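Troubleshooting: if your tokenizer reports a length mismatch, compare against these two reference records.
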Amino acid sequence: MYAYIDVIGVAFFVMAWLWLRKFEAKESRVLNRSTVTASDYTIRLMSVPEDTTEKELAMHFAELTGEAVAAVHLAFNNAKEIDMYEQRGKVRQKRYKCVQRIRYEKTMMKENKGKRKRLRKLMREREDITVLVRDKDEKRSKVINQNQKAIQAFVTFETEAGFVEAISQYQLNWFRKNGCCYPEKLKFKDKQLQVEQAPELSTIIWENLEYSSKGRFFCKCLTNSVALLAILFSVLLTFLALDFKSKVLENASMPCPDGCFDLDTEEKVNVTYFSISGLFCNSYYLPLC
């Protein structure tokens, strides 16, 4: 009964999953046709020269497509800055909790239920956290004032025609893209551009933009290699265990000694001349004495 219930549950789950996949694809097409977002007018450049300016990119794509460019936004290598913002947010959250405890203690003091010693401790803790917040702000300002390097760019056109023209211009075959026949008019500062439709802003993990496609490929290869080594190691241990088991069974296949079946359990355990693997005599396992 349990096996049948398990089979029915798995079949229902698989059918529901397939239906959801089909429904999701259909709903996605309907939403894309009926919804207009900024990504419908925006292209993403996967890599740009470090000294790129927004004005230069706007002029390049305006001349290439013949359509006006609404805005250009550069993405910088600011993963360190984002990490510092996250750390500052954690400290600010800690300070907020400390302030709330101070308010609670002051309220209890008015009712003669609080303790001044605990209140003074919380006040000192708040001062220390405030100094820590200021220190993190100073470090963050130093990082922001440094010359940041542009790693990607987002170009938004005034019309959808400009977006379509830019995408079509950079849809080259493999030979023209990787060979010596790359069109000169598509180059920007003598560098080839990799153009694709920009994703929605909410789906971009900004601190990961610094990793190039080659870097992501290397990380994937490293992760797969470690996983493959772990699998091979487990397989090796399995075969070693099987080999040890076969040797143990081979050593344990010797015939039972004379009079073994006439001995009781305690006498069988006390027998001293059995092999290290033990023997199965008269349905009893005889371990090493």
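Reference record two:
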Amino acid sequence: MEESIGERLRRLRLERGLSQRQLADTGVTAAYISRIEGGERRPSVRALRQLAPKLGVSVTYLETGSDLTADEQRDIRLGDAELRFRLGEGGPEVETELRELLAESLEALDEAGALRAQVALGLAVAGRSDHAQAVQLLEAVVAHQGMSPLEQPDVYAALGHAYSELGRRGDAIKLFENCLASLDDSDPRAEAAYVRFATFLSYALADAGDLGAAQSVVNEAVDRAGAVDDAYTRVRLYWSRARLASMAGESTNALSNIRSAITLLKETEDTLHLGLAYLLQGEFLLEENRLDEADAVLTLASRLVGQADAQHRGGLLAERAKVAARRGDAKTALALAEQAIEVVGSGTPSEEGRAHWSLAEALAAAGDLIAAEKEFDRAEELLAGEGRYTVQLLKVRARVARESGRVDQAIELLERATDLAARRFVSTSPGVRGAA
């Protein structure tokens, strides 16, 4: 229990072997001290200044139980909250503490403390996929004078990811272009930072459907990565090249690159990203309908990702539902797809779209083609702005139509998929080449 001023006064007095009368002073009578110790009175500032020297402590300690100032105490609490967040401890409690520290810092006009609290809070919110709130917090952070992509790369990465998940891909592209333009080549950290932000830019461009510009950015990053001796830099490049190859329909190349990323990640203790790499490999294997291999790597992904945020758990459940549906196990597929939709909830269009896609395949496997069509429509609507998944969704939908005897619809869907795939390579971002 936290010690009150009266309890602290009594403890200190008894530790020093003083009676209330012996401690008394001019204007601070023994009766007054008795009332303070009993919790009936709160000592005045004058009384604290008179009593503290006689007890051999500072006025601050007598009043608060600590010799630290309020600013110093807040700084210690902030450091503790930041550490707990980085270690993945505390969950909602850490986020609550960061909100309180942000409010206290603003009230105390502590600009540096408020910025630190807002950075940690923004990253915490982004980590649980609350993208709208992450944007609100992190936009204010990056607007702060002196905030640098080189010093705070995680802030810019999280903000760009949140933009993309909210469908604001133009904002993500602009943010990462600005990050590249701001890097100082004289800083030895610039090369690794360049590769990192170029990778993020390629994701944003690819998701916006501009594979030509995305490939140009990645090629430039590959050229500059030779001087960077960092495993994560190479992982990012392999990951980006894998995604681009998949979107270009080059499944063999996609699988080769993601396997290279997995090999590097196995040498680290980063089980989360290793699990996510297996998830991506599972998606690529499903594109080739290699069901047994996909099932095996998705099982590995499930073990490694564990209770990650809803986006990743929902994605895992959706991919596993597709495997079950294509094996003809409609009951398992339906159960997994419904779990995916429940886990994702009202997430981003990409998250919801993938979940509804899996439900469409499950319903088709169960023979409920009318309901499956509705879910395919819903998935296509949600993924309309998602360059990464739409072509594959159209191909799967064409296969289901063909298998159910709707040949004309299957041909129309395949034509749309071919047209969309071709349009991806037409650059719509001429400014990117200057930034890259």
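Descriptive notes for reference record two:
- Confidence is low (pLDDT under 50) at residues 426-436.
- The longest helix spans residues 190-207.
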